[in-house]
Amino acid sequence: MRELPKDHLIGYDTVEGKRLFKQALLEGGLEAFFPLSQQFLTQNEPAYCGIGTLCMILNALKVDPAITWRKPWRWFTQEMLDCCQPLEHVKQFGITLAEFACLAKCNGLDATTKFANATMFEEFEEAVKASTISGEQFLAVSYSRASLGQTGAGHFSPVGGYCSENGGMVLVLDVARFKYPSYWVPIKMLFDSLIPVDPTTNQPRGYSVLRQQTTDTTPRSLLRLNATKRTWQSLFDPLWLNTMLANTYKDFMTSLIHALGNYPDPVLSRHDDLALEFPNDPTSPTSPSSAAAVRQTYGTLESVKCKLEYQSRHDAFHEHVERKCELYGIVDVGFAKLEVTIFFLALLGMQSFLRRLQPELQDEIVEMVGKDLRDPWIAREAGAIRRQMESLEGCCTAEGNCSNCHN
């Protein structure tokens, strides 16, 4: 572990750091610290600071990932956070602030994200204070390490506390615990560290305030969008290009189904996300002790049970859609009819897609789709997929690198 620059940064575990901690506690500025500290982790890879920070916040907010981690426990791990960029890409390049916000939304959080060039110091100061006096929302910073006198480039970490001394001091809970300890930093200095441009996006860095969604959406959904920031454009563009000239709902749906032919799996079941754990061969010379083997076998039985429970819910939903959803009867595809139906319901709820169509057709689509979306279960599943779509679109808009966001 490296030593902190001593000019402005104060180690959390030093005498002065403890004094600031005590003062922050008296001021009520450590309400975020306690739930975050219970979930404090070390990023798993050198470039995992963003997903490590998000994983810590998701668990601190007690968001249900709807995926079993080990045995009966549902718990976020960093390897689950891949809906905006493939993990292999993240291992090499990390994630940007827009991708961080996209991941947060895909996994059940509301994210209010500000780039440094679109905010003021006073707004940042208020956001820090509001987040540290609450255990129901947390603030993550994307900042330049060099601006704080540290080695390295861009970094993410959650904010754990605030103290009014010395013009305002912020407790940064550094998720690269192998590199630097947690520390107190002057709030103005922290804000200034958001300003340097991220060479990946040619934009400054910033911060994101995260809280649980107020509606029941993605975390408990049965399906997930099969797209990342890299593939979203190749999925979205052909769909609207092939349907923008349609005048009737029938022609529109025919064109939409045809356009989807080159992308047969736009939505996937979460069934494959539920990993099975198999015990080692008990005859192997490297097999665990009998007690460990029993625990491992129990883990296998629990994971099988989770898969069976999921499959039961999935089958029930499929039957429900067959009986209740008019669009299901229209969708004539030879593959994944349930998944394609939910994908279309989600897509047709996106204003960025609808506004490209003829006005009369827009009204007809809203009326037809609205009938199916009156059903709460169908609406929840379609809403979960739509939120993932909107998260990817928001990421593209923030970074200005997707054609479907420029029109």
Can you give me a brief rundown of this structure?
Its EC number is 2.3.2.15. The protein is built from 15 helices and 13 strands.
Describe the protein's architecture and organization.
The structure is a single chain. By secondary structure, this protein is α+β, with helices and mostly antiparallel strands. It is 45% helix and 14% strand. The chain has helices at residues 15-27, 33-38, 49-60, 87-93, 97-106, 121-132, 187-192, 229-243, 249-259, 290-324, 326-330, 337-347, 351-354, 359-372, 376-399; strands at 10-11, 68-70, 73-74, 109-115, 137-144, 154-163, 169-172, 183-186, 197-198, 203-204, 206-212, 223-225, 267-269. It is elongated, with a radius of gyration of 24 Å. The model is unreliable at 276-289, 291-298 and 402-407 (pLDDT under 50).
Provide keyphrases for this structure.
alpha+beta; two-stranded antiparallel sheet; disordered C terminus
- What spatial form do the alpha-carbon principal axes imply? elongated
Task: Note poorly predicted spans.
Answer: 276-289, 291-298, 402-407
User: What is the residue-mean pLDDT, rounded to a whole number?
Assistant: 86
Number of extended strands: 13
Helix count, per DSSP? Answer: 15
Pfam family, one: Phytochelatin
InterPro entries: Papain-like_cys_pep_sf, PCS-like, PCS_N, PCS_N_sf
Domain Peptidase C83: 1-215
EC number: 2.3.2.15
